[in-house]
């Protein structure tokens, strides 16, 4: 396989990893206004992702770095054209990270509520804008003959793009609720189960509409991988329904696992819908950025391939070990004991 095509799939896998792992972080952050009736409950929710949220975000850094090195033309067009959307994502992620670190530094109610609000914003906004951005890459964006984006942020907020954003928010919200149900006990656990049931039914309807629309767009673009797009979309739908089934049966681990497959297959559906373009031009298809005309030299890609072969297994092993160490539930009694010790 040509290295340029190989790296298209490697970058895709990195983004799948990012949306799966940081995705449940976003979902946990979105749940704060609905779960946690008191301070102990809110700390219980936040502590479910406390040891892992920052490491989950490194998948985005790695994916962005690989995108820059493997496809400099794509990186330049994407980051200049989607500048405002990506800047808002970055600011929201900064707000969320700061809030996790500073929320517990003072005991004032206004102080904590302020940071709780920033956690929610820092979870909803990136999920929404990532969904909008990726959906527009599938649909096509206005590019000129120099591969420069000629639209604005409002151009991206079209019906399909907005539906993609709303779908991702709902899917990740549900993903996070499954994680909370898996990692907590007591009132938070019960409230997360009830909320996941309500959110799940809405998510099924919205996600089905988005996946069907995506298939029609891929068919209209005569996507070479259309049969695989349809198969991945169908499997994503099955995985979502299975997650709901396991959730109702109170099989929390299986529900969360099915949620992982839902996110992964949904992102893969969008990724395959783009192929062989990386940014399709809605102005003139001849102006599109493709895997071949956007990639780096074979020499660069060869060096990157060896680096990935050596270091990616180490990163995966370390992250797997991290999750194993922090695999236990975050119990309410443990947080209450910690509060007594601190006071």
UniProtKB/TrEMBL annotation:
Keywords annotated in UniProt: Cell membrane, Electron transport, Heme, Iron, Membrane, Metal-binding, Transmembrane, Transmembrane helix, Transport
Pfam families membership: Cyt_bd_oxida_II (PF02322)
Residues that span the membrane, as ranges: 6-32, 77-98, 119-139, 159-180, 201-219, 225-246, 253-274, 303-326
InterPro entries, sorted: Cyt-d_oxidase_su2
GO CC annotations, alphabetized: cytochrome complex; plasma membrane
Main location: membrane
MF-aspect GO terms: electron transfer activity; metal ion binding; oxidoreductase activity, acting on diphenols and related substances as donors, oxygen as acceptor
GO BP term, example: aerobic electron transport chain
Similarity comment: Belongs to the cytochrome ubiquinol oxidase subunit 2 family.
UniProt name for this protein: Cytochrome d ubiquinol oxidase subunit II
Organism of derivation: Microbacterium schleiferi
Gene: cydB
